[in-house]
Amino acid sequence: MRSIHVDTGVADALAAFEMPQRLGFGVLMAPVMYRCQYQDGRWWDAELMPYGPLQIDPAAKVLHYAQEIFEGLKAYRVDRDRAALFRPQMNWERMNLSARRLCMPDIPRDIFMQAVQTVTAYCEDFIPRNSGQSLYLRPFMFGTQPDLSVAAANSYSFLVIASPSEVYHSGSMRVLVERNDSRAAVGGTGAEKVGGNYAASLQSVQATLAKGFDQTLWLHPSDRRHIEELSGMNFFAVMEGELHTPALSGSILPGVTRDSLIQLARALDITVHERPMDIDDLLALIKSGTCTEAFACGTATIVSPISVLGDADGQVYELPDTPGPVARQLRQALLDIQEGRGSDRFDWMSPIPPECYP
Amino acid sequence: MRSIHVDTGVADALAAFEMPQRLGFGVLMAPVMYRCQYQDGRWWDAELMPYGPLQIDPAAKVLHYAQEIFEGLKAYRVDRDRAALFRPQMNWERMNLSARRLCMPDIPRDIFMQAVQTVTAYCEDFIPRNSGQSLYLRPFMFGTQPDLSVAAANSYSFLVIASPSEVYHSGSMRVLVERNDSRAAVGGTGAEKVGGNYAASLQSVQATLAKGFDQTLWLHPSDRRHIEELSGMNFFAVMEGELHTPALSGSILPGVTRDSLIQLARALDITVHERPMDIDDLLALIKSGTCTEAFACGTATIVSPISVLGDADGQVYELPDTPGPVARQLRQALLDIQEGRGSDRFDWMSPIPPECYP
Ligand SMILES: Cc1ncc(COP(=O)(O)O)c(C=O)c1O
Ligand SMILES: Cc1ncc(COP(=O)(O)O)c(C=O)c1O
Q: What CA–CA distance (Å, rounded) separates A159 from A161?
């Protein structure tokens, strides 16, 4: 393993940390963080530090041109002796796709794995052990070079912070179809986990909440007809017992949960269709009773049933089965693996190597 | 005027600052910066501080969801006793359009003006006095709330930093038509000065340079046919002595320089067409000799003639007049106003109020 410098303040930070009664999602930050910096064409020594403010030059590229990418994955300890990560390899690979899209250096596998494993190991005592809870890990990287020209930076910080969390959304969701705004263009950054996609989505997220819905459903930015995804989740619908999800269009994030559910469904003999899904067709199929279930999925939320799809014209389309049998079955199968109850038949769980512990 | 706290280090920072021989663009940072913070629903006291690193929480929204906007404007001192800003009101208005698009609070006019005026006043001695040089001012604002949910922040920093600069691009430019990537979607953030647009453009900027060109020419993200703009400049072409520029499509930045050139051209009896401009038509018109000039404009570059348009298929289209008579005439008319030689007939120059000086 790469050497890592453990800051002298880490032990005190760990000792001083107290777990509150209520966790929420992504609000409570774990007491340590990992940082590795890239400069002069190479990665320098990694540090584990107490969680705390970063020093950033006011002209750093990240603050002006949003040269920033991130990932999200979880460490589980429910029904486990020691913590385990869910499919970290997928997040590492996707993070490097994001990095390339924004002209950032690749993150070596050993740095990424050291980062998520070490933060998890040091925080093991703070990983909640009730079903649905976990340690949410947030790897991120941004350009630090202070220079106002529109060009890629020559220096970067890669960090991992973590948050002991509940699921992002519990219960069922009311979802509003977005007919005007887009989160990313064709030829843009929609297939990558890039800060700008989320900035572009905020206006719709806010309007959606104001209208009494929980989440925006995004359509294809050019044809304005095909379903893409939600702001932080992929979309599924169930018709006659079969699963339908938008094909990866190039502007959709290829979700790790989406991929996992597709594999699980097939293993459970549920037919899965990855295909372009026209929103008007879907709404008609809900109305006619052919589409009985819809749900969203993602690392933060796992599987969240959708109770209602609302359209911009004020029409609402209720899904009769909420939570429906397919969503429930898939959610349970996935959680059973993540939470150590089911057999890890796909080899998805990644234990923390002993040398990562303090 | 709003009260402003001048940090005790400012005098020393100013005294220690040395102007180098070569300036470049946006590389040399002026020794002071302005900051005003927004929290609990209101703006707090402003500070003028020595230029230096900011403290940012690792979970701040800006580092993950790119909730960040910026502006660019210039203070001129060529042929002037005291510094003057070019159309700062336009930048203030546009910055608030950007703020609204990203669900950020409006910046009050007095804060914006105090910021750009005070930084200019304190840096007056560092505003270069050769034609084409100026003090480039960079107002920017970002979300600081530490919270990983995809939602607008409840706290913000607004800053102004500055850079004594040359023009961004001198001489003529070779411009490459981008047929694949997009910088912003229809329904996205292309009409606003939002970090994510620039992150999305980096890949094309880099590929363009690698192919021996200077700038990317962006097309409409959905129709892939109509010309939008360059990565930091608007686009103009001259046909039979008349000026043509893409109409504001909703995904183009409404440039202050673009607006100024349109006004200047009309005052000089040059006919101006703001209209959708098809790239293939334009290339054909260059080939046939009808289109004789093309140029780009923006705060950083002022007016930059385009010598060549290259297409993705390898074809190159040379503009016979580089720099052409219309570009030269407009550039001179604009610089004469900015640099205090011509009469300020449109009332564009904004002097710094005496109370802003140290
Ligand atoms: C836009 C978007 N879509 C989908 C997802 C779901 O992906 P994953 O299952 O990898 O978490 C996420 C986030 O995680 C996301 O940000
Ligand atoms: C994308 C883009 N287009 C055009 C411009 C030109 O606008 P202005 O003339 O206001 O500087 C800029 C920058 O300034 C820009 O970033």
A: 7
